[in-house]
């Protein structure tokens, strides 16, 4: 039976469908002792979070522990979902706009409301860059307003498109390896290299999403 290439991303819509809970499936396999007793993995994990927190504090004008914790948690959550999607028979949540918009839109809306409530003059000043000629000011206000409105969409689409692209390549190679014959060894090597590349993409896209969200926050704070 012929199926659509994008059918691998179709979520199950049954009454008892739990595929959106795949974001938490990794927590079921991590023993409770892992979180409370230091080991080399948890120490390495803490070092990564500490480095990320220092970088995010450099981007934020107000170095708040709560803000840094929020964005580090966002990075870990997206990274976890991206990596889980590389495993077979696990639903890839981050390849759907419903998932990514659920992350991007509330963040963007919160930043906008916070900026207009507490830094109103600062928000209006951002609509007209410094040194703009008087005749171009109305156009710059329109352009800056549109760029602010499309921010959640660009965040969501960027993450979704990158996740879909890698999974489509792996799906195409997997389907072609069935009837590849003598070329199966070469295709398997390409699959391994592509898997390593996708692992890097998972980390990079999580970092990009977090850094852009931090920059949007720093503009209104």
Architecture overview:
It is a multi-pass membrane protein. With 221 residues, this protein is mostly helical. The protein has one domain. The protein has eight helices and no strands. The protein has helices at 33-36, 40-59, 65-84, 97-118, 120-125, 137-149, 151-176, 184-220. The protein is globular and about 70 Å long.
Cα gyration radius (Å): 21 Å
What characteristic shape results from the CA principal axes? globular
As a percent range, the share of strand residues is under 5%
Helix and strand composition category = mainly alpha
Mean of residue pLDDT values: 81
Total domains, how many? 1
Record field, number of beta strands? 0
Topology summary:
Layout (H helix, E strand, L loop, with lengths): L32 H4 L3 H20 L5 H20 L12 H22 L1 H6 L11 H13 L1 H26 L7 H37 L1
Helix pairs in contact: 2-3, 3-8, 4-7, 4-8, 7-8
Give a summary of the structure in a few sentences.
With 221 residues, the protein is an all-alpha fold. Helix content is 67%, strand content 0%. α2 packs across α3 (65-84).
Keywords:
mainly alpha, 0% strand
